[in-house]
């Protein structure tokens, strides 16, 4: 769609074109002509209907995706896929015998797990706001995972269910 500023530029070019042919045209006449060409009754209607210039683009961010360090692919899959119920989005290795970089997700939560040295520090904590924390606890308790049976703890900021992965990382699920 043509903006109001673009329509004004069209009117200027139309006026300049007429002047080159020795057919003077007022600015108002040029605006009215452009309005008619764009399918409007008159310039006032066009200027009310045409969008303004696009605002200056703002810096925006999408949601962050935490990267957690892992050291053993089998233990990571057992904890994140089997126990927590995540699904694999992608797997990447530069070569077959090189470290794994794994993208996982569950119901809008995305995590990246990396065996690459320097990608993340073991012992990290991520805070995950969520809904229906009791359902998550019931699900996790029902799996009878041998390395943890997390409980909900009431804090001043909400209910917290903290799980610890095999690599020292913590995920704090929180419902306010």
UniProtKB/TrEMBL annotation:
- Record-linked InterPro entries: Bleomycin-R, Glyas_Bleomycin-R_OHBP_Dase, Glyoxalase_8, VOC_core
Q: Where is the VOC domain?
A: 60-176
Family statement drawn from the similarity comment of this UniProt entry:
Belongs to the bleomycin resistance protein family.
Secreted keyword on record: no
Q: Which Pfam families match?
A: Glyoxalase_7 (PF19581), Glyoxalase_8 (PF20066)
Keywords (alphabetical) are: Antibiotic resistance
Q: What name does this protein carry?
A: Bleomycin resistance protein
Give the residue spans that cross the bilayer: none
């Amino acid at each position: 769609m043509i903006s109001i500023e673009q329509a004004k530029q069209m009117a200027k070019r139309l006026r300049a074109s007429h002047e080159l042919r020795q057919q003077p045209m007022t600015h108002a006449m040029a605006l009215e002509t452009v309005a008619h060409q764009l399918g409007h009754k008159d310039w006032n209607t066009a200027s009310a209907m045409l969008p303004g210039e696009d605002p200056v683009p703002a810096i925006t961010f999408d949601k962050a995706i935490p990267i957690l360090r892992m050291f053993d692919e089998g233990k990571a899959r057992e904890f994140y896929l089997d126990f927590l119920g995540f699904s694999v989005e992608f797997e990447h290795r530069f070569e077959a015998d090189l470290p794994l970089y794994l993208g996982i997700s569950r119901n809008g939560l995305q995590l990246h797990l990396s065996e690459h040295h320097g990608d993340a520090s073991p012992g990290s904590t991520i805070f995950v706001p969520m809904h229906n924390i009791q359902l998550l606890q019931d699900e996790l308790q029902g799996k009878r995972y041998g390395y943890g049976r997390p409980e909900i703890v009431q804090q001043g900021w909400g209910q917290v269910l903290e799980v610890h992965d095999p690599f020292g990382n913590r995920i704090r699920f929180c419902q306010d």
